[in-house]
Amino acid sequence: MIPPNTTAEIHLPKGALKSKLSINGKSIDELSNIKLIETKDKIVILSVKSGTYNITTKLNSYE
After folding, report:
1. DSSP summary character for residue 61
2. Helix (H, G, I), strand (E, B) or coil at 44
3. What is the pTM of this model?
4. Domain locations in the chain?
5. What Å distances lie between residue 1 and 10, 16, 18, 42, 51, CA to CA?
6. Which residues contact 32 (CB under 8 A, 6 or more apart)?
7. pLDDT tens digits, the chain, 63 residues: what are they?
8. How many angstroms separate the CA atoms of 25 and 13, rounded?
9. Is 15 in a helix, a strand, or coil?
């Protein structure tokens, strides 16, 4: 849960983008309140606006 009037960064393993990543049952492309801001080394960084999120992925290993 991200409190009202704030934003947060979510750091995920880079392999999450290659797997079946979904946020609240949708892909990142379908959500206007979530933006991919950076991919580096083995990390993906998302910027998210306030709200409650259910993030799921099917990672087999940490890439």
Report:
1. S
2. strand
3. 0.79
4. 2-56
5. 12, 20, 25, 25, 6
6. none
7. 999 999 999 999 888 877 788 999 999 889 999 999 999 888 999 999 999 999 998 876 555
8. 19
9. helix
